Amino acid sequence: MIEISTSSAVVAGAVLALLVLGAVFALAAGLRARSQGRELHEQNRRLAVMVSTSPAQAMIVRADGRVELSRRLADWLGRADVPGDISDVSDALEVEDAAALNDQITAAQKAARSFSLSVRARGSERALLVIGDRAADAVGAPGGVVLWFLDTTESQEEISRLQRDGSRLRAAFDALTGLIEAAPMPMWYRGPDLRLLMVNTAYVRAVEAEDAEDAVERGLELVEGAGLGGPLANAAIARDTGEPQIAAMPATMGGARRMLRLHDVPLPTGGVAGFAVDIEELEQLRGGMKRFGEAQRAMLDRMSAAVAQFAPDRSLVFVNQPFRRMFAMKPEWLADRPEFDRVLERMREAKRLPEMRDFPAWKAERRDWFTAPDAVDETWTVGSFHLRVVAQPLPEGGLILVFEDRTQQLELQREHGEMQAVRTATLDSLSEAVAVFGKGRLQLWNRKFSALWDDDGVLDGRPQIANIARAIAPRLVRPQQADIIGDLIRSAARDRQQRGSTLQFADGRWFDVTAVPLPDGNALLTMLDTSDRHRVERALRDRNEALEAADRVKTTFVANMSYELRTPLTSIKGFTEMLQGGFAGDLSDNGQEYVEAILQSVDRLGTLVDDVLDLTGREGTPLRREPVDMAAIAREAVDLLAPVAKARQLDLAVELVETAGSIVADPRRIRQVIEHLLRHGIGGTPEGGRVLLHLDGNDRVSRIIVSDNGPGMSVEAQARAFDRFAYSGISRNGERALRLGLPLAKQFVEAHGGKIALLSEPGEGTLVTVELPRK
């Protein structure tokens, strides 16, 4: 028996305890490692399952080109075996894709740059998305690259489809955008908050913005005002109700006020699209149509014909005043818009329809007027009235009825027929030859006209004007004058001018031919036999020539006699003055009176001789032309005749106005004019009377007025006051006398281009006015 010391035992026990503890620890560690191993195995199994079933398959590419990949990935690549080198993988891909993949792997190895690349297996439709990155150290492939392959075949098809749809939608969007931009009407899009997000070019022009961005950024609204009833309110209603909204609002576009119809359309996105249509012209047209309708109805009210209009539903919509009167219908009954049948029945009740046996059938036939292809025109006879009825169907399905009272027209036609007969009888009873020409032919003529032409039946065929002229030519003294007839007729018918001429027939007859335009465009030709008048005119011309010759002989005789009278008058005056001067001795008082009476008579006779010479032998004597002071000339005449007026106890008054001025004339003749007028006034005014000489004028004429308050002159005396060698009847001093003063004054005044006028009333006096031109 081996004895173990105590210390050894202690050491052994300690060692044993340590061994036991180590064994226990090792056992516990083994159990723990076993548990961890089992967990790692399970985790690895799960990861392997996940990797094998993952839509992405990994491939490790080492630095030397060797690869590690799964069987599934090899199937994706179309390889029967599992590739061991990157070149085998490249051979499984399309050439372009293999080259691109190698380039990307090289870049990832050198620059640690990740990449994403789409490749296709050679000879397959399979599309693969490769995502590559440098391998981490944990992979155990230093300098290598980890590639993840995803099968995107279905996704690629979807992507291709989406790309095609996107291209199509993009093209449609571009076309729609171009259409919106090219649209002539403003268009816009609002977001759910109703703020503008997009506008077209027409909108930009309408709001006068710089561009679409400027209009959107500034929020320029097309229509002013965003309150109740404004554009935003309309868009809000469309957004909230999901129903399109339409509203008409005014807007200012291009500086002009326009009426717009706004359309707001809600979109599924919550926004609102809108566009505006310019309806200004439409509104104006609508207003014009309304005014036209009102004017048309006002015009229909002024028509004499009765008019009624029915709507497509056959209700009465309008009648004019003549319709109410013609058919005795009250306005309140018509205001209810009665139906067509009721209107006919009311007409029948008022006895305004023709009598018929089957009224319902007749009414049904008239109801067909609404669908008739053309207007219907018929005549109704109601008692003594005759109505023309025109039914005009309207394109929109209504009907217009026009009732025209032709009673008076038919009566006028009857009267016209009677007037035609009366006209024919009247024309035949005229003493003139009368014919009416129209359209270049003879239309109507009377018996007198036929007697001039129709010896050979020329007028039976209503010949043309040229044939009429040729037929009458042989019967005229000058055949070429026959063309005058055609010229007169054409002037009246075409030029609407009345002209006349004279024709002489070979048998000695004379005719006054006159063509008169008629209101209907025709021409009336009249031929009046004036043979008797021509004979009388010829006799009067012969007599006038004889009288003119006698007047010339008388004038010559009077002039010669006046010259002959001057010699004895001069001798008488000379011897009388010698007696008065005492050459034959002193005269007694009575002898002196006799001598003075002789001298006065000689002076008066000398004046008469001078007047006669002025009226006869001096008519062609030229006038002197020099400035004449009218006031000075008048004073000379007044000074000469003042003693005569004083001797007759007359008041000779003179009024000289500065406007009388001066004229260019013969001073001696102007003074004689004033003297003759004053002598006429003085000689015709009884004692105690008054004679007034008044001179005035203007810028055109100088005026002389001589008036008196004598007994005046009769109408006959006034008519002959200016006649030469005419007795004035009983003169104003009660004696028959030959008055030469007024004729001489008239002759001198007219020689100066002036005018003389006499105004007198019996018992009121006489006034003579002379106007002499300044130039």
Q: Would you write up a description of this structure?
A:
Residues 727-738 have low confidence and may be disordered. The chain has 775 residues and is of the alpha+beta class. Strand 9 and strand 10 (272-278) form a beta hairpin. Strands 2-1-5-4-3 form a 5-stranded antiparallel β-sheet, sandwiched between helices. It has a 5-stranded antiparallel β-sheet with strand order 7-6-10-9-8, with helices on both faces. The protein has a 5-stranded antiparallel β-sheet with strand order 12-11-15-14-13. The longest helix has 51 residues, at 531-581. The chain has 5 domains: 49-159, Beta-Lactamase; 180-278, Beta-Lactamase; 285-405, 2-Layer Sandwich (Beta-Lactamase); 412-529, 2-Layer Sandwich (Beta-Lactamase), CATH 3.30.450.20; 622-773, Histidine kinase-like ATPase, C-terminal domain (Heat Shock Protein 90, 2-Layer Sandwich). It is elongated, with a radius of gyration of 68 Å. The termini are far apart. The protein has 23 helices and 29 strands.
Task: Itemize the secondary structure elements and their pairings.
Layout: H1 6-53, E1 56-61, E2 67-69, H2 71-76, H3 86-91, H4 95-111, E3 115-120, E4 127-134, E5 145-151, H5 153-182, E6 187-190, E7 196-199, H6 201-207, H7 212-218, H8 231-241, E8 245-253, E9 256-266, E10 272-278, H9 280-302, E11 306-310, E12 316-319, H10 321-327, H11 331-334, H12 340-349, H13 359-367, E13 376-382, E14 385-393, E15 399-405, H14 407-429, E16 433-438, E17 441-445, H15 447-453, H16 465-472, H17 483-493, E18 499-504, E19 510-517, E20 523-529, H18 531-581, H19 589-616, E21 626-629, H20 630-647, E22 651-656, E23 662-665, H21 667-683, E24 690-697, E25 701-708, H22 715-719, E26 727-730, E27 736-738, H23 741-751, E28 755-761, E29 765-773
Parallel strand pairs: 22-24
Antiparallel strand pairs: 1-2, 1-5, 3-4, 4-5, 6-7, 6-10, 8-9, 9-10, 11-12, 11-15, 13-14, 14-15, 16-17, 16-20, 18-19, 19-20, 21-23, 24-25, 25-29, 26-27, 28-29
Helix pairs in contact: 16-17, 18-19, 20-21, 21-23
GO molecular function: kinase activity
Enzyme class: transferase
EC number: 2.7.13.3
